[in-house]
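Recall the central idea of this unit: under ordinary conditions, the amino acid sequence of a chain determines the structure it adopts. In this exercise we apply that idea directly, starting from the sequence alone.
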Amino acid sequence: MDVSLTGTEIHALRGLVEEAIIKLDKEVKEGIEPKTASALKESRDVFKDLLEKLPVEFGTVS
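Accordingly, the structure predicted from this sequence is:
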């Protein structure tokens, strides 16, 4: 799937993904039950993979 994003949209999306990762890291560290921690880590890893796919520079991505 191809998605076209402007530099501003990329910047906003990177910020949201980074916030989600930070929030999930905090929740994992709060000492919750193992099944919940595992699910949170899985979600965090998905967000990290997504963040790696987003370009750092501003421009249009297709």
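Helices lie at 7-29, 34-53.
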